[in-house]
Amino acid sequence: MLKQKPTNGTITQSSLLFSLCKIAYFLLPLPIALLSLSLMSLYMEYYDIGVSMTANNGFLVYFVAPALLISLYITATASLYLGRKIFNFRWLGIVLGSALMFMVGMGAFLINVQSNLDYPTEKPQTMTVFLNYYVSHVTR
Question: Is the pLDDT of residue 134 over 70?
Fold first, then answer.
């Protein structure tokens, strides 16, 4: 079945805008994964967790990053589908998916923090102390 050509120019512009937003939407998991992985790496560096930073970052790059990216892209695809098909509002999928992808990325970091809470360290393991270190390290 052939689609009719739009007679109004605004329909074409809206469709083009939505297509550009979808491209940006499917690129969004990359910076979210980068943020989550940098938080994990600096958390392990700050509390001196693991054998060495090379081993820690190798583990993050080769094992955690692919699993995180796969889960972020599954979240992106599922939320876009739900927004378009179930709720019948295509922009809702992008907004919902962006929020869910951010929560999945930060959830992966928090799972890493939770798994390392019992690690013996001399520094207090509070999130505010670490986030101050993270911000000062990133802004250097």
Answer: yes
